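Input/output pair, single chain:
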Amino acid sequence: MGSNVDLRIISIAVVISILVGAGTGYMVGNSPIPEYKEEIDQLETINLGIREEKAQLLDENTALQDQLYEFQYALIKSVKAYNDILEEQVLLAKSYRALERSYSELEGEYELLQLSYEELSSNDKEGS
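Output:
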């Protein structure tokens, strides 16, 4: 009798195992895993596109930063040239004012010399 019970328990265990295995197989076959795989594939494709776009944007960013540095350098050079021109203008304005003063002084001296000459000429004519 003992072996009959053991056989019966083993048979019941085998039947339960078969039912559980079949149920699991059915569940796996009808599970949403294929849908998830399809969604994962779509997401990977989107992710790849985003990575390519990111790489392209990084390249564009690098190019734009290079342009920015070039423009900044050109601007710095232009500002320096402008400042140099302003300094030159200040120096030229000072020189111009000094020349004007000298001209005015020379003009005054010329007028005095002219008067002296005219006086000498008239004295010379009177004395002759």
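The mean pLDDT is 87. The chain is about 95% helix and 0% strand.
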